[in-house]
Amino acid sequence: MKRSLILLVSLFPAALMAQQVSVNVTLAASPAGSANVGSPITLTANAVAGKPTPLDIKRPMPEVWRYTFTAQRTWPCADASPTTIASKVSTKSVTWSPKGGMYNLAVTAEFGSTVPLGGNVKVPSGKGSASLNNYTVRPTSGGINYIGTSFSPDSGTAVAPASVGLTLSITNAPEFRWWRYTVYGLGPAQTKDHQGSSAYFAFNNLGAASYTPSISVDQVNQNDCSWEAAVTTHANPYNYVVKAP
Question: Phi-psi region for residue 76, left (φ > 0), alpha (ψ -120 to 50) or beta?
Fold first, then answer.
């Protein structure tokens, strides 16, 4: 009897041996790409297990899936490590309500099939992951004071190929803040981050044309690194003209 029990115990793990199979995973967010602070964001994973190799391994029962969702903020201040939104949950969709910033999102999906006690079918299992980078959660406030623009030289006086300077400045800027500025419409977009209440941009080799620059400014509280406000506006003058030689 004792010898039979030892034999049974030694054989039972082999009967439940797991074979790793491939798992294809996708991750989607709704709304896609970006959302406003305070709006619920739904993350949904879709996982499909590959077929086991022909080693007499079958799926005796449906797979039991578990999903782990994480988020890691990359801007305005980068997190040292990902934050777990949900760990090994059975639902493939979760709701997420973070503070403002840019995030890299990820999900890990894993499964293992189960058999009744005493079953003698080898069990497949698997794990896969997917990511969704640069998801943006924007502040709802546009509360940035007047943004001044100053071109050098003035519109209509620069001659192609022109070198043009643009200074942006915030009127009555609050203390303990820093700003990110982006200028569009004067050649390739340029961004300057972690700036004070003004920033200077240089654009070179501009051809003869009438340009329509636009400006994006983000305000960050340096005490807690919260993204407080964001605004997009046009330069003054609305059109910047570079003359032909």
Answer: alpha
Domain boundaries of the chain, sorted by first residue: 19-138, 147-243
Cα angle, residue 219 at apex, residues 217 and 224 outer, rounded to 5°: 155
What is the rounded CA–CA span in Å between residue 188 and residue 238?
A: 18
How many H-runs (helices) and E-runs (strands) does the chain carry? 1, 19
Q: Does residue 13 contact residue 101 with C-beta atoms inside 8 Å?
A: no
**Residue length of the chain:** 245
Give the tens place of pLDDT for each residue, 187-215: 999 999 999 999 999 999 999 999 999 99
Fold of 19-138: Immunoglobulin-like (2.60.40)
Domain 147-243 annotated CATH 2.60.40:
yes
